[in-house]
Amino acid sequence: MAAEDAAPPERRPGLRADAIGFVDALVIGLNSTSPAYSLAAVIGPIVALAGLHAPGVMFASFVPMLLIASAFYYLNKVDQDCGTTFSWVTRAMGPWAGWLGGWAITMTGVLVVGSLADVAVSFALLSFGLDGLVDDAVVRQSLTVLLILAMTAVCVIGTELSAKVQNVLILAQVSFLLVFVGVALYRVYAGTSTYASEEPALGWLDPFGAGGAALTGGLLLGVFIYWGWESAVNLTEEVEDSASAPGRAALWSTVILLVTYVSVGFAVVAYAGPAFLAEHADDEEFLFARLATDVLGGWDWVLLLAVATSAIASTQTTIIPASRTALSMARRRALPAYYGHISPRFRTPDVSTWWVAGIAIAWYLVVNRISASALLDSLTALSLLIAFYYALTGVACAVYYRLHLLDSVHNLLLIGLGPLVGAGLLTWLLVRSVTDMADPANSYSGTAWFGLGPPLVIGIGIALTGVFLMVVWRLRSPEFWEERPTVADPGLVRGEER
User: What is the CATH number of the domain that holds 399?
Assistant: First the structure.
């Protein structure tokens, strides 16, 4: 009996180490950005702003993303925690800033998952010719909820299954986009475009060619189209070579996205030509769909299906950062312990994953009851949260490595100045976003909430809710708030083993 009493307690399961490789992480990072869906949503407004220089504006919007991806890479090298920004900012700047960074990441998932699933269902129905069902709110919303539940189940069942699903989905959407680019450019050079097309020119890569206002607007849109690549780093505890592979996957995903976006930008601008773009500057919401129908003819369902698969993929991968961040916060006692439960069978954070999905479904259904425009306004509020936690991560990188920035020019530029410049650009964009969103006329609904635009009210509401919950949990469980900021371990910086 004494021997039984002395037996060690049963060890709790952790996340499954080495579940996926570098390529799988790269694919998940790409799919999290939902490239086909992002292009369908954003290429029209960017072209309307910049005209021939749309490819240049898309290139410029890539710069702050690359600088912040560098911060993710170097912070992951010294701290392989699935909570990413939450964990790193806590270590570098203290628990208050870290908690708010974690809250921002979690809420981005809640805000966007329902909308992504809704887009996936709508475009899938359109691609199969079931246009009438898209307008049936009960059918569309029911299918949306079922899709969220199905993708959540895939996330819970295992990271390996998630990776396999993502590999198929990224292949489908990239292939569809390449078909569009290839056919459009072929018709430009063959002279068979319906419009007054123009052959691509390197000058289109000049982001300043359309003026400062166009560049500013393009950068704001770029925050949305590039967002999501860091999902690869949220899987750091489950990726082979966790100290470097997730960070490399994040960096490479931003580069691949750049090539994809700029290629589509060139194809759209070249095929349509400046005259058509100027004439339809106010029709940006439907520009991509209209050109896809014209370029592909009866095969336009290919692009519709690309957007559907893109949104399906992102529905799944967007759940990952939110659930892993909640897991990390629970392990550090920054959230109730049950959010840190890991399935003994699947070795995934089942409780936090289902909670994220449940709140996302509730948000989707409640906001839809207000209006379809309110759902779009909640998406606009995303840019505030994204810019906030990306900028916070950039600053945390420089602060955490502060004792090593002068060790080499490499450290100074890539670990210090680069992330700080990226954080500065995003902070500027955050301020610009707040200014724009304050005007109700700039919202999808065009109505005022408390005298302000709905997206800004939603953003402020989420921030205040986060502060309230943080203070409540601080009073109930003060352990996490006893942590103090630290600096990067010199041995880890030099690549030595722990």
Answer: 1.20.1740.10
